[in-house]
Structure formats: C-alpha cells, structure tokens
Amino acid sequence: IYTDYLYERMQRKGFLFRDCQRLINNDRNHFAACMVALGDADGIVTGVTRNYSTALDDVRRVIDAKPGHRVIGVSIVLARGRTVIVADTAVHDMPNAEQIADIAEEAAGFARRMGYEPRLAMLAYSTFGHPQGERSERIQEAVRILDRRRVDFEYDGEMAADVALNARAMAQYPFMRLTGPANVLIMPAFHSASISTKMLQELGGSTVIGPLLVGLNKPVQIVSLNAKDSDIVNMAAIAAYTAGT
Question: For residues 63 and 35, is the Cβ–Cβ distance under 8 A?
C-alpha cells in the first residue's frame, strides 16, 4: 500500500513503479513518511544518518504543506532568561519579499502556539533605510505586503539585530511599531539565519533548539548529523506535541 501511495504521487514526476518500490523497501525516510501520511504513525524524527536537505527532500515527496501554509524552519534560542524564535533557519535559501512575508506569518503562528504573543522584527544589515541596498529593499517590500494583508501581530522592519533586541536602541526610533524588544526574528536569508544560530550554539551561553520544521501537514522533525541524545529527545517531544494539536 505504501508503494502504491508513493507511486500515485510521483508518477508524473518521472518515477516508475519499481523506483517507488525500491524507495519504500530500502529507504527509511520514505517508508516512515508513508506510515505517517496514511495514519500508521503519528510523527517522524530523522536526520541522524544523512544531511538535512536530503532528509527534507525525502519527506516532501510524501507529505505536503498544510493548505494555506508555507513550510519553514524555526529555531528557538534560549539566552539569559529570554526566548527568541528565529526564522527561516532551514528551508528558503534566498526568499523574495512575498516569501519573507509568508515566513513572517508562519513564524508568528508558531510563536502563538508556543504561548508567546509575537513581536516580529524583519532583520537586515540596515535599519529603516540606512544604509540603502538591494537586499534591504526585499525586507521593506515584505513589510508592505504584511501591511496589505492586515495581519494581527506586531511587526516592523527593516532593522538590524541589535535594534530589534534592545529596548534602548529601539527608543531612538519614535515611529517604531513594536511595543518592546522582538521575540521573533525574521532573517533575510537562510545563510544568515543558519550562521547566527550555530554561532550562538557553539560560543556558549545560549541553548538553541532546532531548526524545527513548521507548516507540514504531518509532524516531521529533522535533526542534524551531529545531533546529541538531548537534541533527539527535544525533537521527539515537539513532534509528539504537534501531533496532538
């Protein structure tokens, strides 16, 4: 039944029936994803034996995004008594303005599900137009897109990370929409998100959980190749929690 299910999804993408049969018989990610898709399991935790992007591609062949949602990666940073959610840390390499706006909405929804009222900072190397640059313009356009969508959470940008996280720095901008330091940081690209969160993790003083996959129709979490036991337990707990919500 798993082979039939995968073949039905993949036959218009160049896969023969025997290709799908081989994947189900030999690849644990495809087998597990089919188990979850068809209700024989509640969630997946994978990634210990293969790189993140490969595991994600395997799963996405079987499990779609939730209708109306965008699949993103978020990381939870716990530092000095503060919790900050960072997105997108796993999926979109260089998102355009529309994708950044989608990422912001998805991250805000995740923050609410975790019990936080989201205050989003749309990050860049510039703050409110200075210095000017093409990459900052994408963030400015994403803010305008959120304006048109009339979303129900606080957001502003573009701004540098120190402004987003420091109330005193924020006070220098009286037009700032945020009522306090941001608790959700929307990164301009995957590489900046990945670099910053991994630096925090390695330098010490911070605990980084993730990246967590958000937006898929079923609970799926992917750990890194060098994941510790505690990382796997955290991911399993989050997968179990999302399976019940």
Answer: no
Q: Given 3-state DSSP classes, what are the helix, strand and coil percentages for the chain, each rounded to the nearest 5?
A: 45, 20, 35
How far, CA to CA in Å, does 179 sit from each of 79, 90, 182? Answer: 21, 28, 9
User: What b-and-e string marks burial along 157-194, b requiring 16 or more CB atoms within 10 Å of the CB?
Assistant: bbbbbebbbeeebbeeeeebebeebbbbbbbbbbebbb
pLDDT value for 90? 85
Burial of 74 (0-12, 13-18, 19+ CB in 10 A): buried
Contact 44, 36 (CB under 8 A): yes
CA distance 64 to 235: 20
- In the chain, where the domains are located: 2-64+217-243, 72-207
Fold of 72-207: Rossmann fold (3.40.50)
pTM here is 0.86
Please give the biggest Cα pair distance in the chain: 63
Tell whether omega for the bond before 152 is within 30 degrees of 0, i.e. cis.
no
Task: Domain 2-64+217-243: give its CATH code.
Answer: 3.40.50.10950
| Cα gap 105→120, rounded to integer Å | 9
Same fold, 2-64+217-243 and 72-207: yes
pLDDT in tens, 124-148: 988 998 877 777 889 999 999 999 9
